[in-house]
Amino acid sequence: MVARLSRLKLKLWLSVVSVALVIGGQAWAQNSALEQEKATLVSKFAKFVNWPESAIGSEFVIGVYEDTERYEFFKSYFKNKGVNNKDISVRLITTFNEVKNVHILYVSSNKRNVLTSADKAVSGTPTLMITENNNDLNKTMIDISSDEAKSNITFKINDINIDKAGLVVPDLSYFVDDSNNDSILSIGPTYALQLKQENELLALENKFKEEKKALENRLVKQEASLNKLNEKLNESQESTEKYNADLKASTERLNSAQDQMTKLSQEIGAKDAQLQSLEEQLKALQENKSLVVEDNAETPNENLQALNENAIAQEKAIAELTESLKKQKDIANNATAKLAKLAKISKEKESSSSFEILFYVFVLIAIIALAVAFLMWKKAKSSALASTRPAPVNEKNSLLPIREKQLIRSENIAALGYIATDITYAVGLSLADLLEQLESNGDTKNAATLKPVVSLLDNFNLIAADQDDTEIQSFDLIAYMNKMMMLYDFEFNQSNINYNYSGESSLTIKSIPSYIALVLLNLINNSLKHGFDNNGNGKISLNVEKGANNSTKITYSDDGKGMNKATLEQVFTPFFTTRSDRGYIGVGMSTTFELVKKKLAGDIKIDSKEGKGTTVSITLP
């Protein structure tokens, strides 16, 4: 019985606690909703009430008088919000001397005892005073009353005090309309700028991470290629050492053969002298024999037979000596042929060894250039990251990080240009020497393979050398432009771009070739980067014709994606680009316009439609 009574008491106690929690929760939720409505009403006053110009500052200030709880709520509610393009700042007011620095002074219901002092403090200042549950409307401007039972709020306005403060309150319909409560306040300008800078910085970091990853992958591949090249170079060095050893052995054999040949020549000379002596002896013997026959007809047969045997023996010795001399001449001829063959083999080995060494030196120079480019990119990355850190709120320096990044990029590109020019010049000289050596050795196959590369480098060095010359010259425009377009043969083949030229076969003009090269370079790069969006698969056409009054008309066109009217109107504007996300600066077409109009004293027109390509017409005097 006692246990049952205890369980009933426990259930009753739990029921009472549950009801209290439900009622307390409902009261808290109701009170929270009322506080939210008050903050919303204050937001409407901040947006729709007009303050005099003297009260306009860099931010909109809401002051809460000695109510920490209300201050914390307002601070959280108005955080990162703005009104009329100003940041909203919530301050806790502890003395009425601070009232002159606020736009709205909010006095809670628990501070009604200070209304007289507050009214005196705001008198003569453009400050809107808002109170709660105040029965004396003469001491305030706007009073907010809340009915917790009905869960709603009402407000009263003292127009007289508002007029004295120089404030203008619009129609009350602005304050009772609850349809747009969520869009009354906007994001604060400072917070919006901070978000924008954070997003730009995040995008830039992601871009740098992608570029870093791509470069690291390329670096890994280059290192692997370098390792393979080192292995091949080591093998080549081993082969070269072996060739050198074989060459040394061949040289030793050649020297030995030469010594033998010299010795054989000396022996042949001795044999020749001996043979000549024997021939003279034979001739003398034959003469003596005739004399003996004529003068001694009665000489005994034994003497005559002895003389005959002696002559036969001498003739036999002469025949044997002649045969020996013939064999030695054959040996000497074979030795001479072997010596010539060894010399030819030695020369071929030296040519092959020189070609391989020069090839690996060229590859090593290219890898060093890539390493220099990677180091310069690292430097540009560090500078760009430093220049994109969030700066203080100032419209004048908002574009400074972008300009600094563009300047760093331009300097790095220029430095790489000078490095590339020096490298191609040095490689061109080396390859030209190699081509001359191959032609002198009669290696027509390798010479024919190397000749187009040498021609390409010669054209590039000629175009690059002209960039330092800005004097008017008389030159063949068609031949010069053909050399310029040859530099893009590899790019066009790789990107499936069809290039077509039509017009004059030869045309001599007086102008500045370096500026014409820059104009053509900018047009081609614009087609590749923007017209074909770096994807290739298009057509580029170039036409050159004589114009009126000895002028020259150059027509350049592509069948890329073209431009819309807005882009076409700004195409010659400096620093205008449609692809800043790729790091393009936007100075190519503006530079082209300046070169044609001012440097070349000509005229330039451009026509383009979306999806139908672009045509550029240039007239030179």
Automatic annotation (TrEMBL):
Organism: Thalassotalea piscium
Signal peptide: 1-29
Enzyme Commission identifier(s): 2.7.13.3
Keyword Signal annotated: yes
Keywords recorded for this protein, A-Z: Coiled coil, Kinase, Membrane, Signal, Transferase, Transmembrane, Transmembrane helix
Reactions mediated catalytically: ATP + protein L-histidine = ADP + protein N-phospho-L-histidine
Location of the Histidine kinase domain: 456-621
Name of the protein: histidine kinase
Transmembrane segments: 357-377
Any coiled-coil regions, as ranges: 192-338
GO molecular function: protein histidine kinase activity
Pfam families, per the entry: DUF4154 (PF13689), HATPase_c (PF02518)
